[in-house]
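Hi R.,

Here's the chain you asked about this morning:
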Amino acid sequence: MRYLARQGLALQGDNDTESDLIQLLHLRAEDKPQLTKWLERSSRKYTSHDNQNEMLENMAHQIMRKLRSLIQKSPFLAIMVDEMTDVSE
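And the predicted structure, written out as tokens:
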């Protein structure tokens, strides 16, 4: 999940079999037999859209805590802002 998020790829597809996350799990399961068994379970896989969103939210909070810690320890802080005006009509 972290890999897909870092690459900016969608986790969810039109259905679970087309999901990038599920496809990546199946690819990883080729060398991890425990993962194959886990994926073959019929219930409670923890791969629902709600669970995915909750895990992503937890990752985002972890990143924010790390950034806050780094900012608090740093003697300097810089903020860069870039603006691009949309000129299309």
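The CA atoms of residues 13 and 42 lie 19 Å apart.

Let me know if you need anything else.
M.
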